[in-house]
Design brief:
Family: Belongs to the bacterial solute-binding protein SsuA/TauA family.
Pfam family, one: NMT1
Domain Solute-binding protein family 3/N-terminal: 43-268
Largest sheet: 7 strands, mixed
Strand content: 15-25%
Number of strands: 14
Main location: periplasm
Structural class: alpha/beta
Shape: globular
Number of helices: 15
Subcellular location: Periplasm
Strand order of the largest sheet: 1-5-4-6-13-7-14
Order of helices and strands: EHEEEHHEHEHEEEHEHEHEHEHHHHEHH
Length: 328
């Protein structure tokens, strides 16, 4: 029987994982050791963060793509990928949806994490299919350079938001070291801009539309401007699991590819899931602009991530991308 996805708080991930494994019929995964369920399926856990990505994976589960490839998948939702990184490192979960920053940083710190597949690719001609930096109505900020000395929210410190916005400010002639970054969930940005709590905030669809409807605007499409869009999001895996179970990893990627193909061709079905999964109005869900989903991993783009992380001292040593990207 396939496990249902569940919404979990960031502080309850470890406990929730234990509950989830008990929910499997008979299988379990302890580190890289796999015990199949009574139905002959491999129990697998995938961590996701609160965003429309939840609907994409859930659609793949409901369409049976993972079960067809031999998996009893459990999808675990948290506010950020960083919150679930310890579970990935320990092997309590086997895969994690994340910005490339998360697995690159984790690997340089000695954690057992590698990048196994792509997830989201941005359309260079579309802003709101991804995350961007927005300002509220009547903001005096007109370009990235104007962010000097301002309070800017990103979804996680040391994330793609921090390196991407820094690069955009620097390219515009500004000094990114003067920016005060605070951590704020993407969905909380519209209210924070309206209240004046922040001068600018990183958010994504459907909240970009919410900010624009209130008179705000996009200050910088920094992910595209920095050349990071082709692998904005990736799937990371537990390194030991990948090493000991390469065929199962290949099967998981194949299930992802079928999920992505379905997602790219069935936007209406995905949008219908969003009100329940993200607690947003139906009208906002129908206006969701979907990105392109792809399992392709582009080493050059990931190398740009690594270069920016080194430049802005997110990592102390230059990442070894040959070790970080899983070879299969």
């Amino acid at each position: 029987m396939m496990s249902l996805s569940r919404v979990l708080g960031t502080t309850t991930v470890t406990v929730a994982l234990a509950v989830g494994l008990l929910g499997c019929s008979s299988g379990s995964v302890d580190g890289s050791t796999v015990k199949e369920t009574q139905e002959g399926l491999t129990p697998i856990s995938l961590g996701v963060f609160t965003s429309p990505s939840v609907a994409v994976i859930q659609a793949g589960v409901e369409q049976g793509f993972f079960e067809e490839h031999g998996f009893d998948i459990e999808v675990i939702q948290a506010a950020s990928s960083a919150a679930q990184l310890p579970a990935l490192d320990s092997g309590k979960i086997q895969f994690l949806l994340a910005s490339p920053v998360t697995p690159i940083l984790a690997n340089t710190q000695g954690l057992d994490v590698q990048i196994v597949a792509g997830y989201a690719q941005n359309d260079p001609d579309t802003v709101n299919d991804s995350t961007a930096l927005l300002v509220g109505a009547d903001s005096p900020l007109k370009s990235p350079k104007d962010l000097e000395g301002k309070k800017v929210s990103i979804n996680a410190l040391g994330s793609i938001g921090e390196i991407g916005i820094n690069a955009a400010v620097e390219a515009d002639g500004g000094d990114p070291s003067t920016i005060q970054y605070i951590q704020l969930a993407l969905g909380d940005v519209p209210a924070a801009l309206e209240s004046g709590e922040i001068d600018a905030g990183m958010t994504g669809a459907p909240w970009i539309g919410q900010v624009e409807a209130a008179g705000g605007s996009v200050l910088s499409d920094f992910i595209q401007e920095d050349g990071l869009g082709k692998n904005e999001l990736v799937i990371a895996g537990n390194g030991t699991f990948l090493k000991d179970n390469p065929e199962k990893a290949e099967d998981f990627i194949a299930a992802l590819e079928e999920t992505y193909e379905y997602a790219n061709e069935n936007h209406d079905a995905l949008a219908a899931m969003l009100p329940e999964l993200l607690s947003i109005p139906e009208a906002a869900a129908k206006n969701q602009v979907w990105t392109l989903y792809s399992a392709e991993v582009d080493p050059a783009v990931l190398g740009t991530f690594a270069e920016l992380m080194t430049r802005y001292e997110i990592v102390s040593n230059e990442p070894d991308m040959d070790a970080i990207i899983w070879k299969h």
